[in-house]
Design a protein that fits this description.
EC 2.6.1.16; five-stranded parallel beta sheet; glutamine amidotransferase; aminotransferase; binds 5-amino-5-deoxy-1-O-phosphono-D-mannitol; cytoplasm; 10 strands
């Protein structure tokens, strides 16, 4: 059932190109227009939405942080992303014009379920993004956009995350399409790029051997830090979460702009720091700032593991290890940038003799608080 792989996690990492393609299937028509008929919330209601709130836990929350950037950029609707466990215990301001997006692989996560009940009680419409047909979260939502990752067995989420990203992009682009924002041309171009994502993820998977070797060489380390900005920040958080749950290592993700506000004090000789570098095109200011961050931490002895686009030469002098990812539009970069971090964590777990598919103390779906 592991299809020749030692662990479900390895199988699920390898299945990602197909999972991405399956989640896009039938949702982009020949003219490059999105048709999400299954989202039964009428276009007239979506046009009235004046606020989006995304709720989720763990890895799904990281997808939600990226959704916020995509939704605000392509729709200009204010969007907040919140941990479901925090949201449900405060007094969020919601009404009939709020769209709540609940993201969950299992569809059974108690905190996310309670958050969506809380939202519906206040009249908000809830759209679930879910991987499990007929599970509780989609049943209790107004509408659902299913991810088609297929069953995910390993506790650490991989292919479900990539398909959650795809679903979040589809929702953001669809909202933009329905509401007709000034980004019409960009939206059409990104829809085209999204349909090429399968090939881009495949390309990343083909180049992972050096990442595995690097992971094995770090098996004795205690700490790994992850830095990113903009979409790279949630990717950094996701890389750190994977390492905690699989390798049982101290791992933390930071927004690179926060370095000087504290975390830079942690940098010491030979500390591995993974840096997710934004595209030098698009938001080039951020790119240049990250390159300075890499210089700063390296000058203080960090061992820099740099994830950067093909053709980005500015990072080369400061990268102790360079991992190349395909060129993508800025907002889609997490689809390719996350994959090396999954492989890295899985290999480190193996090198440390940990149980990859069933890490200690964790359950695949968290149906209690
Ligand atoms: O089933 P869900 O997507 O609602 O699960 C949410 C989290 O429990 C889950 O993503 C968890 O963080 C994973 N083990 C991360 O790899």
């Amino acid at each position: 059932e592991k299809g020749g792989y030692d662990y479900f996690m390895l199988k699920e990492i390898a299945e990602q190109p197909k999972a991405v393609a399956d989640t896009l299937l039938g949702r982009i028509d020949a003219s490059g227009t999105l048709s999400l008929d299954e989202v039964r919330i009428p276009a007239s209601v979506l046009r009235e939405v004046d606020k989006v709130v995304v709720v989720a836990c763990g890895t799904a929350y990281h997808a939600g942080l990226i959704a916020k950037l995509a939704i605000e950029h392509w729709t200009r609707i204010p969007c907040e992303t919140e941990l479901a466990s925090e949201f449900r215990y405060r007094d969020p301001i919601l009404d009939q014009r709020t769209l709540v997006v609940a993201i969950s692989q299992s569809g059974e996560t108690m905190d996310t379920l309670m958050a969506l009940r809380h939202a519906r009680e206040q009249g908000a419409k809830v759209l679930a993004i879910c991987n499990t047909n007929g599970s509780t979260i989609p049943r209790e939502s107004d509408a659902v956009l299913y991810t088609h990752a297929g069953p995910e067995v390993a506790v650490a989420s991989t292919k479900a995350f990539l398909t959650q990203l795809v679903a979040c992009y589809l929702v953001a682009l669809y909202l933009g399409q329905v509401r007709g924002t000034k980004w019409g041309d960009e939206i059409r171009a990104v829809i085209r790029e999204l349909s090429e994502a399968e090939a881009a993820v495949e390309r990343v998977l083909e180049t992972m051997e050096p990442v595995r070797a690097l992971a094995r060489s770090l098996a004795e380390k205690n700490t790994v830090l992850f830095l990113g900005r903009h979409v790279g920040y949630p990717v950094a958080l996701e890389g750190a979460l994977k390492l905690k749950e699989l390798a049982y290592m101290h791992a933390e993700g930071f927004a690179a702009g926060e370095l000087k506000h504290g975390p830079i004090a942690l940098i010491e000789q030979d500390l591995p720091v993974v840096v997710v570098v934004p595209s030098p095109r698009g938001r080039s200011v951020l790119h240049d700032k990250i390159v300075s961050n890499i210089q700063e931490i390296r000058a203080r002895g960090a061992r820099t593991i740099v994830i950067a686009e093909e053709g980005d030469e500015a990072v080369v002098p400061y990268a102790d290890h360079l991992v190349r990812i395909p060129v993508t539009p800025t907002l889609l970069q997490p689809l390719v940038a996350t994959v090396p971090l999954q492989v890295f964590a899985c290999e480190l777990a193996t090198a440390r003799g940990n149980e990859v598919d069933q890490p200690r103390n964790l359950a695949k779906s968290v149906t209690v608080e």
